[in-house]
Amino acid sequence: MSGVVGIKTKVGKTQKLFYSLSSIQHRGQDASGIILSTGENLRRIRGLGLVNEIFADENLKDSEGEYGLGHVRSAPEGCNQDYNVEPLVSFAKGNEFSLAHDGNLVNYKTLKKKEEEMGMAFHTYTDSELILLLITRYFEGDIVKAIRRAMKDLRGAYSCVLCMPDKIVGFRDYNGIRPLMIGFDEETTIIASENCSIEILDIENYRDIEAGEIVVCDKDGIKSYKEESKVDCKHCIFEYIYTARPDANIEGTNAYMFRRRSGEKLYDQAPVEADLVCPVPDSGTPSAIGFAQRSGIPFAAGLVRNRYMGRTFIKSDQKERELSVRLKLNPQKSVLNGKRIVLVDDSIVRGTTSAKLIQRIRKAGAREVHLRVTSPPVTNPCYYGVDTPDKSKLIAANLSVEEINKKIGADSLEFLSIDNLMDLTDNPCDYCKACFTGDYPIRKDEK
Description:
The protein is 30% helix and 26% strand. It is an alpha+beta fold and 447 residues long.
């Protein structure tokens, strides 16, 4: 999981890039990087850590040139190495190129093996390097033709921003799995994963970059290139459930309203008698509000969140996730003691953190704990950019709902049904639901 930002602006390029990138920190907390164009070449600053840890005042001085690029990254387990930090840079055919990528290629191993057999040496373990390699190989002076040619070879999810000294280019795979947007005013044009990166610059005019669309922003303005005949929209439904910020507006659907309505739907589907509705903050909060409003059961903050902890779902290993949950969430005994609690969460992936959290809530004195999950059971890994484990580690792939309930120690457990989930979307297009159904829009290459 990653976040990307590309910018063209006349004034304050570096500062604007810093603020926009910081606003999508939730999409990746392992590494950060930026590219600053001088108009003639590209300057890179990157490192392991959060945006505000990597970029200090001394390396955020503005440079000549109007273009910049930024990336935040959540690394798969074992892959958080400095050589994998984006944006990546390439020098080819007298030009400089830089790429930031959100998503995952399903034919990465096949493409890489083919290149290695041709004598190519790689410097990272990222599929972003392959995307950049193909673009530079096919570049003959027309960046749109080079990207379009590379897209013939690429299979999977990729929402990318490419930066050259004199332009930024955003492009999205033909399924549009991961989000990408463009916004602009008289002074600034910005391409970003979510609208929060755009709105933080007081830009109100923005739209989704469409599936299969290439958008070029240079001295001549903004130009769009579409290839609608190949488009088959399969937007990621998990963006609304968890990944995106609550204020995200993706493909016509607002994430907060989606989550609140999911809580309402879940109460209608699986009502329960209780004294309090408590969220697992922060992603479970809008859904818990909806559940409480529909049920009439009072809403309460039974878990206090440490605001200085990051997102536990994207931690690199299980031990770190479990420790992070303890540091991040603390049960309030004064709220929970003697009460029947409805605990509302967005998803259950491995189940271990849910079990430990319920144990701690009971230790704080809760009389009953009823877990309500505002997504269907996660039974399949994601191959398109969300770092879920393989099936052997997905609790719902191996146990029934009743068995999960017994294992995590809840008094009752209910997941939102897939039909009720899909009723929440405002866009008539199709969505990728593979993590719940196993119906992958693009099959993974197993070679």
